[in-house]
Design brief:
alpha/beta; 34% strand; four-stranded mixed β-sheet; single chain
Length: 122
């Protein structure tokens, strides 16, 4: 299991049903656990090197979305849809790039973003 260091940048998350949410991220989304203090926090990362610190506090009204960066939003969308993920919308172009949104079974809100630059050099 990889250890987290101070040089790593991570997104801090507080999720509803944190232990079940960690299980969802690892089993369904393909995240990998790195380090855990199962009473306070869990560190995980995805395939692209996005690092997350999940605080294991119960949160009855978490509204902040989990932003997951990707290099292929469409591929992720179809792969996750096939695995049973319920998306709140299909892939959409936004000023930040191509984005899709979904929730897990516990009401946590996720965004998958493929960053794109739409400016044309003249």
């Amino acid at each position: 299991m990889m250890m987290i260091t101070d040089e790593k940048k991570y997104q801090q998350l507080i999720l509803k049903e944190p232990l079940k949410s960690v299980e969802f991220l690892v089993q369904t989304m393909g995240f990998e656990p790195m380090q855990a203090d199962h009473e306070r926090e869990v560190f995980i990362h995805d395939k692209l090197g996005n690092y997350f610190k999940l605080l294991l506090n119960q949160c009855a009204d978490c509204q902040e979305p989990v932003l997951i960066y990707t290099d292929d939003c469409l591929s992720n969308y179809f792969e996750l849809k096939t695995s049973g993920i319920h998306f709140t919308n299909g892939p959409q172009y936004t000023p930040q790039g191509l984005m899709v949104e979904f929730t897990d079974n516990w009401g946590n809100y996720y965004k998958i973003l493929e960053e794109r630059v739409y400016e044309v050099d003249q």
